[in-house]
Amino acid sequence: MKRTEIKYLLELTDFGETINVKGWVRTKRIGKNVAFIALNDGSTIKNVQIVVEMNEDAEKVLERIHTGAALSVDGILAESMGSGQKVEVQAGNIEVLGEANPEEYPLQPKKHSLEFLREKAYLRYRTNTFSAIARVRHAMIFAIHNFFNDRNFYNIHTPIITGSDAEGAGEMFQVTTLDLENVPKTEDGKVDYKKDFFGKPANLTVSGQLEGELAALAM
């Protein structure tokens, strides 16, 4: 069965249809007769609610499901009776694609500081904060590119590494492949850049203006 991304699933109205959804668990809540799983796949900041009827088989699967676990769910698309959501998925079959140890998985369902998330770079885009920032930045960049593209401008990628100081910008970040603990020297005691990757001093550029001017006069 073809997977349906949550972004599109939340807009569906084909109630009663069997669908497949994949994602990772944001939260899990177990009641007496049913369990609720908030699932997210990154296609939208919103989650879809997975409703699981409690029985012996479901309990065994739910024991393996914690925040961060990756799931594949086959179920029935249903109109949600809960507030804040139009649809939900009534689970028929849940496959645990990857478990997440609650003692080790760092993004438990609680508030995390930005300092903490900076140390968890491989997971921080799963949080609402970083996900929202990335989506807003994407929309802004896309709109700006469209604006200039519609007016026949070109997007030029200027060199990142340069051998010159752009307009006397001052201190720059040097780029080198030389062994800094054993720097080769010339006979007069200076750094022998001929043995460096670029054959001369190189730095991260601080401006693409010069290359931009050259392109503007040619295109």
Topology:
Layout: H1 6-9, E1 18-30, E2 34-40, E3 48-53, H2 56-62, E4 70-79, E5 87-98, H3 114-118, H4 128-149, E6 161-162, E7 203-204, H5 209-216
Parallel strand pairs: 3-5
Antiparallel strand pairs: 1-2, 1-4, 2-3, 4-5, 6-7
Any overview of this molecule?
The two termini are 49 Å apart. Helices cover 21% and strands 24% of the residues. It has five helices and seven strands, in the order H-E-E-E-H-E-E-H-H-E-E-H. It has three domains: 93 residues, OB fold (Dihydrolipoamide Acetyltransferase, E2P), CATH 2.40.50; 31 residues; 64 residues, no CATH class. The chain is of the alpha+beta class and 219 residues long. The strands form two sheets. The protein has a five-stranded mixed beta barrel with strand order 1-2-3-5-4. It has a two-stranded antiparallel ribbon with strand order 6-7.
User: Which segments are poorly predicted (pLDDT under 50) over 5 or more consecutive residues?
Assistant: none
Tally of DSSP helical segments: 5
Gyration radius, in Å: 27 Å
- What CATH architecture label of the largest domain applies? Beta Barrel
